[in-house]
Amino acid sequence: MIFKYKGFTLAEVLVTLGIIGVVSAMTVPTLMQNHQRKAYITQLHKVYNEFTQAAVMVLNDNNAINLTKPI
């Protein structure tokens, strides 16, 4: 007997959705952890750069030569 209808059965769709669900349940936590780690590293770099700039500004202010006074 040949069927004229082409398509997926409900069982095939449910199996496919189940596989997609299992794969996403395994990968989403890893992706979230990687994103949080990158955000943390970015924040650390920002703080480090700000401290470095502040230290350079202090050194420049303390060692600056006053060019308005004659020697």
Tell me the layout of helices and strands.
Blueprint: H1 10-62
Distance between the termini: 108 Å
Could you tell me the number of beta strands? 0
- Structural class given helices, strands, pairing? mainly alpha
Q: How confident overall, as mean pLDDT?
A: 86
Please tell me what the overall shape is: rod-shaped
Biggest sheet, open or closed, and with what strands and sense?
none
**Which regions have little confidence, pLDDT < 50, spanning 5+ residues?**
none
Describe the structure using short key phrases.
71 residues, mainly alpha
Describe the structure.
Helix content is 75%, strand content 0%. The protein is an all-alpha fold and 71 residues long. The termini are far apart. 0% of the residues are buried.
Q: How would you summarize this macromolecular structure in one to three sentences?
A:
By secondary structure, the protein is mainly alpha-helical. It contains 1 helix and no strands.
